[in-house]
């Protein structure tokens, strides 16, 4: 069992002084020193009807029960899941590990370093600020596509990545050496979620006492959910919550409903998992509603879904609104572990443990779900999603009509309101090959196979390569001005594409390996229509060159002058399976991952000082000590009421965390740009907001700086607002600082799904530093709501389908909110007093502090202050 042995050091599971009342159900496994907490020995008939995802919560509660952080009542609450899941009952969950990527990982380590300084200042032991469970960080979000469509693209992009980010990488390497239980994989390793699938995931852990338990995790990327395809329970949390988890705090959660999806039927020959998940996303988001719920897949056709297909479906749980999309461990799972180079003996032991503990999907247990829906794979078709949201599913056969409709429809998620005379507009230009080309609405200008949703799936990637092969062999050429790129999710993807020659054909069409996954800004800020599609459709549509054509009838002319239908280029399943069988070998995985820590020569050359406390450089524009703990005392200060607050922003629906805290390019009109220029940073060295998340001075100026932001207080689109007292239009940052200077509270009012998108802790941190006291919205995305509480920004929700429009809010109002010095109850109704033109009205709102522990976080000024006080006090 060596490979399952993770040395947890001062493990969070062994710090408590009280004995586990469930020690009586601990049993030996085999003849050695291995043991486990046997759920069957509880002799409780309710367990067999629990969804597999809930059984993992139950096992964690039983194993970690100390009647302090996890109580016997918590265990009973989970056992009575069927009766409690709709009652918003609070339960703790102690995951096995934490997963980070660099854009969210850097601010986490900045916070930990700052907490060490503060602990020392308060007279505590700085060394207590150490992860107590394994933390894995993969540097995969820093690269930008400066170079494309050339064989040298990857090397050039990687070199530029280190030039831009050397200061950040030095800081990360310091963190790896300074903090215990922290593994950092260097740039060039691959995409974090695929490396998690192929290498980091264990399925079963063993602690330093020989106790076996299921692998589980939380991660600081919303697509952490991909790991649920491997039967490992995991989801995205904010960086703030992840830091607290590292330091020994359980995840506090409300016991979720579990929606069962009964998978039946068989996919038609040309369809891939992306087509499945785009349909699921639309169906669950629009027709079912699974926000804050688990989704668990079961049924007779589950066995026909490969692990890569399951991972693709699990990956997009944030897009369909669920906390997780879970697949229980079965034979397909274990076959994948062997295929990816895990030791067969260990895999057999994993099977034995999971079967004995009723955690293995035997397809016979009668599981009860809160609701059940059927997914018939035979009824699905080729599809995409867009042009603005991932849950707006579009059949490929309807793409041209849907896009034409979007051009003329009113501005919205499915509309651009392009005047009739502008819809047929053609612009000609001369490209660097000296030829003249034309662009119209619908012209493809960017084609990227980069998303973790797709690049982890061998069938999808191979399908794209086989299509490229057919295209090249038929003399079909790529369009040179389209910025195309390929970012394999791991080095194994590159290996199996190279093994059968498919990478060569993709490169012939301009899809060169450019590094990791992101374009600057993920999607270019000047491209307004963006579609999510399978890799095979990305390649096909890049060859067609326009989405405003009927793909079903579109034909190419081969080099022999013959006509070939576009859809005939799409490979069949038997072609894909034959390639996988011949070229996808387990040795690829073992060869690549045995030296993954040392894969990058630039990383290996970085030299650092291995000190316990970080030496902050005040002149750094990448790493800066944040003010979150300034003037902190051992006892929390009283929470003050919100009094006569002005509205900083009035926002609509689906405001994403990227609207709030952009990850992409720093615009010349922005306050962050002005700040960096004052520090003598050249334009070519600006980098991105994502890369500068370790510097609070940049990030607070970047909060609400997205050029696509629509603030209803301002007539024009963009990151501006009205400073109400002066009636002047100015940047959001400038207005917030004026309010702060005048000791005036501010709030934000928004519509539905506030904070959707990536789990971006700076969306909450930036709001806090702007002085925002509360956010009043029609609904919140799960992770962002938690992050707001983590930074002591109060999330409030309209009741009874009320909204800003219901109260005719226009920004001239002031708001007062009584908070009783923080003495709040979970999901309490709170009265808001709104004054406009001398008239005051009152209305109740729902306080979205959902659990008792979140009340404590809020009263302490945030989760990190709560943890730090606990550690310093001992």
UniProtKB/TrEMBL annotation:
<dbReference type="GO" id="GO:0003994">
    <property type="term" value="F:aconitate hydratase activity"/>
</dbReference>
<keyword id="KW-0411">Iron-sulfur</keyword>
<dbReference type="GO" id="GO:0046872">
    <property type="term" value="F:metal ion binding"/>
</dbReference>
<dbReference type="InterPro" id="IPR015928">
    <property type="entry name" value="Aconitase/3IPM_dehydase_swvl"/>
</dbReference>
<dbReference type="InterPro" id="IPR015931">
    <property type="entry name" value="Acnase/IPM_dHydase_lsu_aba_1/3"/>
</dbReference>
<keyword id="KW-0479">Metal-binding</keyword>
<dbReference type="InterPro" id="IPR044137">
    <property type="entry name" value="AcnA_IRP_Swivel"/>
</dbReference>
<keyword id="KW-0408">Iron</keyword>
<dbReference type="InterPro" id="IPR000573">
    <property type="entry name" value="AconitaseA/IPMdHydase_ssu_swvl"/>
</dbReference>
<dbReference type="Pfam" id="PF00330">
    <property type="entry name" value="Aconitase"/>
</dbReference>
<dbReference type="InterPro" id="IPR001030">
    <property type="entry name" value="Acoase/IPM_deHydtase_lsu_aba"/>
</dbReference>
<feature type="domain" description="Aconitase/3-isopropylmalate dehydratase large subunit alpha/beta/alpha">
    <location>
        <begin position="81"/>
        <end position="515"/>
    </location>
</feature>
<dbReference type="GO" id="GO:0072350">
    <property type="term" value="P:tricarboxylic acid metabolic process"/>
</dbReference>
<feature type="domain" description="Aconitase A/isopropylmalate dehydratase small subunit swivel">
    <location>
        <begin position="674"/>
        <end position="800"/>
    </location>
</feature>
<protein>
    <recommendedName>
        <fullName>aconitate hydratase</fullName>
        <ecNumber>4.2.1.3</ecNumber>
    </recommendedName>
</protein>
<dbReference type="GO" id="GO:0051536">
    <property type="term" value="F:iron-sulfur cluster binding"/>
</dbReference>
<dbReference type="Pfam" id="PF00694">
    <property type="entry name" value="Aconitase_C"/>
</dbReference>
<keyword id="KW-0456">Lyase</keyword>
<dbReference type="InterPro" id="IPR006249">
    <property type="entry name" value="Aconitase/IRP2"/>
</dbReference>
<comment type="similarity">
    <text>Belongs to the aconitase/IPM isomerase family.</text>
</comment>
<dbReference type="InterPro" id="IPR036008">
    <property type="entry name" value="Aconitase_4Fe-4S_dom"/>
</dbReference>
